Amino acid sequence: MENTDKKLAEIYNDLDELDNDFRNANLISKLVKLILGKSILEIGCGNGALLGELVKLGKKVKGIEPNLEIINIAKKINPNLDIVQGFAEELDIIINEKFNNILMIDVVEHIEDDNKLVQGLGKFLETNGELIIFVPAYQALYGKRDKEIGHYRRYNKKTLRLLLEQNGFKIVRMNYWNMLGILPYLISEKIFKKPLETSLRNKKQKNPIKRMISKLLFYWFKYIENNINFGFGLSLICIAKKK
C-alpha cells in the first residue's frame, strides 16, 4: 500500500498543468457537463483539478482523498478547496450530509470490496441525486500499470451495471471513452509487458515532437472523442440514480 501511495503521488506531482494535460483537461471538460447538481462530493479527489473547475461554476464542493501527499499537491494548486483526508470506506465517519452528486473518478478499481462501497453510497445522495463513476475498462487489459497503481480490477458495461443495479442504483447512461488509447495500451501491456508510457502528460520539458503530439491529442479529445461515442474505449463513464 505504501509503495502504491508513493507511486500515485509521483504521478500527480509529474502531471502538467491542466491546459497541457490532454487527457485530464478533456476528461474534466466532459465530466463538468454531466454534473448537474449544486452540491458535490468527490471521493478520491486527487489533486482537486475537477473540484477546482466546479468551484468556478459556483458549485458547493467537498473532496475526500486518502493520500496526504496528494492533498498537499491539491492545496498548492487551490488552497481554498475543502478536502478531508480519509478513505472511501470511511464515509460513515467522515460525512454527515447529503449531496446532489457523488463523483468517483478512477477510484472504484482501487477498492477491494467495491460491492460494499457502492452499497453504502445511496444514503449520501439527495432525492434524484446522481452518482458519476469513471473506471478503467476491460479486464483483459489488466496489466503491470494496474498493479503498480493499486487497481484490483477493470470493468466492462456488464460488470459495472451489475455492481450498481444490485446495490440500489438505476443506470441513466453509460459509455466508453478514450478509444485512441486502447491500441498503445494493448501493445505496451500485453506485448512488451511494461506500463504504458505517459510522458506526453508530464510537466517535464517536452521536445518539439512531443509537444506537437500532445497538442494533436488535445484537439482529438476535444473535438472528436468528447463528441462521438465509438462504442469502445480504455475507460468507462457511468451516471446512475438511486432507485
Automatic annotation (TrEMBL):
<dbReference type="InterPro" id="IPR029063">
    <property type="entry name" value="SAM-dependent_MTases_sf"/>
</dbReference>
<dbReference type="Pfam" id="PF13489">
    <property type="entry name" value="Methyltransf_23"/>
</dbReference>
<protein>
    <submittedName>
        <fullName>Uncharacterized protein</fullName>
    </submittedName>
</protein>
